[in-house]
Amino acid sequence: MKKLFIDTNRDGYSTDQCESTMTVKELIECLEQYDGETMVYFRNDSGYTYGSIDEDDINDTEDGDDE
Fold first, then answer.
1. Which of 2, 8, 17, 49 is deepest in the core (most CB within 10 A)?
2. Is residue 34, in this structure, part of any structural domain at all?
3. Is residue 39 within 8 Å of residue 6, measured between CB atoms?
4. What strand order describes the sheet that includes 3-7?
5. Pairing state of beta strands 49-52 and 39-44?
6. How far is 33 from 29, CA to CA, in rounded Å?
7. How many domains does the chain have?
8. Is there a domain that residue 44 lies in?
9. CB burial string 13-38: b at 16+ within 10 A, e below
10. SS3 letters for 28-66?
11. For residues 12 and 4, what is the distance between their CA atoms, to the nearest angstrom?
């Protein structure tokens, strides 16, 4: 089975310290080029560790946002 890796970046301690990030629209457009059955993983520390993603990992709360 094919795998897709999203390399993670640690840019700061708050979202304000991140220079830029994709929008939902941009992410969807990027993922549309892959087969719908492709497994998606986070790749951390240049492949030293990996992480899985499931629906419970996605949230739209404002926890952690600087206000």
1. 8
2. yes
3. no
4. 3-7, 39-44, 49-52
5. antiparallel
6. 8
7. 1
8. yes
9. eeeeeeeeeeeeeeeeeeeeeeeeee
10. HHHHCCCCCCCEEEEEEHHHCEEEECCHHHCCCCCCCCC
11. 25
On whether residue 29 sits in a domain, the answer given is yes
pLDDT in tens, 18-47: 989 999 999 999 999 999 999 999 999 989
Answer yes or no: are the C-beta atoms of 38 and 6 closer than 8 Å: no
**In which domain, by residue range, is 32 found?**
3-12+23-55
pLDDT higher than threshold 70 for residue 60: yes
Encode pLDDT of 43-59 as tens digits: 999 899 999 999 999 88
Amino acid code (one letter) for 49: T
Confirm if 42 and 51 have CB atoms less than 8 A apart. yes
Whether residue 39 lies inside any domain: the answer is yes
Q: Give the residue carrying structure tokens 């560790």.
A: 49
